[in-house]
TrEMBL record:
It comes from Mesorhizobium denitrificans. It is an enzyme of class 3 (hydrolase). Residues 234-382 form the Helicase C-terminal domain. Transmembrane segments: none annotated. Residues 372-479 are annotated as: Disordered. CDD domains: DEADc (cd00268), SF2_C_DEAD (cd18787). Its EC number is 3.6.4.13. Residues 400-417, 428-456 have a biased composition (Basic and acidic residues). Keywords: ATP-binding, Cytoplasm, Helicase, Hydrolase, Nucleotide-binding. This is DEAD-box ATP-dependent RNA helicase RhpA. SUPFAM superfamilies: P-loop containing nucleoside triphosphate hydrolases (SSF52540). Residues 32-205 form the Helicase ATP-binding domain. One of its GO terms (molecular function) is RNA helicase activity.
Length: 489
C-alpha cells in the first residue's frame, strides 16, 4: 500500500513525498482512511510506530475546507508533555508546508501573552497540554465550541500523570458532534472507561507492541554497589571504557531528582553531558534536545517520562543508570539504539536490590542478559547494607563532605577523563560554559513564576510538568547535613 491509496489530499501527499516516506506504517494505513471519513478512531499504538502522522495527515486534509475564527480553534490535540506537544507542532510544520494554517501551541512554562495573541488571531490547530488549555479557558480567552476534531494522544501517559479529570472536563466542553481520534499505548481499565464515555462507535486499530529488543543491540548488566557514588563511579568507568565507540548516548534514570544529580556530577567530571527532566523550563529543554540532535552534546541524562515519545535520533549507546521498575520501559529505553538494523550497545547498572526487576525484564524479552564483568556475587553484601562512607584514595576528603548527598561527597574530579575536552581548544571557556549549564539547571529547578501565580487548586499543581511518579518523601535527597549527624546520648 502507498500513501496515495489512503485518500489524502494532493497538498498533503506532496509534503509526505518531500519528507522521504515511501509507505505508510501499519497504524497510518489503518487510521488515515477511517479518520478521513470522519469516524472516531481508537489507536492502540506507542511512539515510534508513526502514530503522529496517522492523525496529522488526515487532519491537514480535512482542514483544507473552512477557516479559523478568533478564539475558536477548529481542532484540538491534547498531549501529556510539552515536548510531545512541540513535536506534534513540528509535524504540522513539516506535513503542512503546502497549507496556510495557523497552529497554536499552549504549553506550560512559556508566557500566556503570546499564546493569547495567537488565539485571538484564530487557530486552525491548537496543540495543548491539559493544564495550560484549561487555564486559558478559565481566563475566558478560548471557546471550545468550534472544535471539529479532538485528538487525545498518549492517553495512558495522561493517566499516569493524573490528567484524566482534566481530559474528562475538556471532552465535555467540546461539542458532541466532533470527531475524536484517541491514542494510547496500553488500555488500562480507566482508559477503556474514558473511551466508552467519549468515543462514538470508534474503529479500533491495534499495532503490536514490541516485547523484544533488536538483535543488533548488545545488552549487558553491570554490577554496582547501591550507593549513588558507587553507581556514578561505575557509570563513569563504563563511559570511559566505551570511549570512542560512543557516538551519542542516553543515560536513563528512574527519578527526575537523580537525572539532575547525575547530570551535575557528569559535568563536574568534565563529561559532555546534558539533562532532560520535568523541572526544566521549556526553552532549556528544547535547547538541550536540539544540542543533542545536532551532536553538540554527547551524553543526555533523562527520565523515562521526559524522554518518552521524543523523536531522538538513533543513539550508539543506552546506559540504564537505574534498572527500570516497569519491564516495558526497558524495551523502550533499549529501542533508542540499534534502530533500522544498526548496531547499538545497552548497559544496565544493577545493584543487589534490583534482582527482581532484572528477572522481570529477562522474562519479558525472553532471554537472559549477560554480565559485563562478573555478576553481583562479587559485590560484598556490606556494600549494599551498611551506611557506607566512600572508601579508597579520596575517602578522607569525601567523608568531610558537606552533606549526605552523593554529589557533595564525591572526590575532586580527575583531570580530563574525557577525550572530547581535547577537541575544545579554549578549556577555560569550556569550563565556564559547564558552570553555566549547572547554574541554568539550578535556575530551572526553581518554581516558575507562572506556577507560583496559579490559583491554589491542589489537584492541578504541576500538572504540566510533573513527570516524577516517585514522590519525594520528607527532605528526600535534600536532607541537610546536620540532620544526618548521629546524636550523642
Ligand atoms: P511517531 O510514532 O509518530 O513518533 O513517529 C516515529 C518516527 O517515525 C518519526 O521520526 C517519524 O518521522 C517517522 N515516520 C513516520 N511515518 C513514517 C513512515 N511512513 N515511514 C518512515 N518513517 C516514518
Amino acid at each position: 500500500m502507498s500513501f496515495a491509496d489512503l485518500g489524502l489530499s494532493q497538498k498533503v501527499l506532496s509534503a509526505v513525498t518531500d519528507s522521504g516516506y515511501l509507505n505508510p506504517t501499519p497504524i497510518q494505513a489503518g487510521a488515515i482512511p477511517q479518520a478521513l471519513q470522519g469516524k472516531d478512531v481508537l489507536g492502540i499504538a506507542q511512539t515510534g510506530t508513526g502514530k503522529t502522522a496517522s492523525f496529522v495527515l488526515p487532519m491537514l486534509t480535512r482542514l483544507e475546507k473552512g477557516r479559523a475564527r478568533a478564539r475558536m480553534p477548529r481542532t484540538l490535540i491534547l498531549e501529556p508533555t510539552r515536548e510531545l506537544a512541540a513535536q506534534v507542532e513540528e509535524n504540522f510544520v513539516k506535513y503542512g508546508k503546502n497549507h496556510r494554517l495557523t497552529v497554536a501551541l499552549l504549553i506550560g512554562g512559556v508566557s500566556f501573552d503570546d499564546q493569547e495573541k495567537k488565539l485571538e488571531r484564530g487557530a486552525d490547530v491548537l496543540i495543548a497540554t491539559p493544564g495550560r488549555l484549561l487555564d486559558h479557558f478559565e481566563r475566558g480567552k478560548l471557546l471550545l465550541t468550534g472544535v471539529e476534531i479532538l485528538v487525545i494522544d498518549e492517553a495512558d501517559r495522561m493517566l499516569d500523570m493524573g490528567f484524566i479529570p482534566d481530559i474528562e472536563r475538556i471532552c465535555k466542553l467540546i461539542p458532541f458532534t466532533r470527531q475524536t481520534l484517541f491514542f494510547s499505548a496500553t488500555m488500562p481499565p480507566e482508559i477503556t472507561k474514558l473511551t466508552e464515555q467519549f468515543l462514538h462507535a470508534p474503529v479500533r486499530i491495534e499495532v503490536a507492541r514490541p516485547a523484544s529488543t533488536a538483535s543488533t543491540v548488545t545488552q549487558a548488566l553491570v554490577k554496582s554497589g547501591s550507593k549513588p557514588w558507587d553507581k556514578r563511579a561505575v557509570l563513569r568507568d563504563l563511559i570511559k571504557e566505551e570511549d570512542e565507540a560512543i557516538k551519542n548516548a542516553i543515560i536513563f534514570c528512574n527519578r527526575k531528582v537523580d537525572v539532575s544529580e547525575l547530570f551535575r556530577s557528569l559535568v563536574k567530571y568534565d563529561f559532555n553531558a546534558g539533562a532532560l527532566h520535568g523541572d526544566m523550563d521549556q526553552r532549556a529543554r528544547m535547547t538541550m534536545l536540539a544540542n543533542f540532535r545536532d551532536g553538540k552534546l554527547k551524553l543526555l541524562v533523562a527520565s523515562d517520562v521526559a524522554a518518552r515519545g521524543l523523536d531522538i535520533p538513533d543513539v550508539s549507546h543506552v546506559f540504564n543508570y537505574d534498572v527500570p521498575i516497569h519491564s516495558e520501559d526497558y524495551v523502550h529505553r533499549i529501542g533508542r539504539t540499534g534502530r533500522a538494523g544498526r548496531t547499538g550497545k545497552a548497559f544496565t547498572i544493577v545493584t543487589r536490590s534490583d534482582a527482581r526487576y532484572v528477572d522481570a525484564i529477562e522474562k519479558l524479552i525472553g532471554k537472559s542478559i549477560d554480565w559485563h564483568s562478573g555478576d553481583l556475587s562479587t559485590v560484598a553484601p556490606s556494600d549494599d547494607t551498611q551506611d557506607e562512607r566512600p572508601r579508597g584514595r579520596n575517602a578522607k576528603s569525601r567523608s568531610r563532605g558537606k552533606d549526605a548527598r552523593g554529589s557533595r561527597l564525591e572526590a575532586k574530579p580527575e583531570k580530563n577523563p574525557q577525550p572530547e575536552t581535547a577537541e575544545v581548544p579554549d578549556v577555560a571557556a569550556e569550563r565556564r560554559s559547564r558552570k553555566d549549564a549547572i547554574r541554568n539547571d539550578n535556575a530551572d529547578r526553581k518554581v516558575q513564576p507562572e506556577q507560583r501565580d496559579r490559583p491554589a487548586r491542589n489537584h492541578r499543581r504541576h500538572r504540566d510538568d510533573d513527570d516524577d511518579i516517585n514522590t519525594t518523601v520528607g527532605f528526600g535527597d535534600e536532607t541537610p547535613a546536620f540532620m544526618m549527624v548521629s546524636a550523642k546520648v
